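hey so u asked for the seq, here:
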Amino acid sequence: MAKDAKPQDPKTRTLADVRALARVLRQYDLSEIEVEREGERIRICRESTLAAGHAVVGAAAALAPAAAPAAPDAGAAKEAVDDGSVIVTSPFVGTFYRAPSPDSPPFVEVNQEVAKGTTLCIVEAMKLMNEIEAESDFKIVEILVKNGEPVEFGQALFKVLPS
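ran it, structure tokens below
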């Protein structure tokens, strides 16, 4: 430290430490982190894996006829449509992204056959990127949301045809 530099205010330093630890928590997908330094202890925990983890598209338990109200669940719901197709809905309020970054190709395209576990999109909720994954095999019939658009909980994202 330079001779003229003033020591950093402990409150400012602590806030900077908390922010840095929160970045590490997100970057490495940790559920908890604790650091002790100079008699100060900082512990940061994620409240639930739903807010911080990856959402998974629901399978049979989340299938519902279009007329029946869909029950909220941890993953994205699917709703049956009369033509045999199914609607995949958003499990979060957030921003819909078709690709992992602006210069990357989209995760899926119309008419693409999708296998279980394939990432369909990302819904950013509260600065967290939540990958929405397929929990069954199906074909993408229609993508119902444009890249970068805000989405609501339960909003239709994809129209798919089960394999």
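The CA atoms of residues 92 and 123 lie 7 Å apart. DSSP finds two helices and twelve strands in the chain.
lmk if thats what u needed
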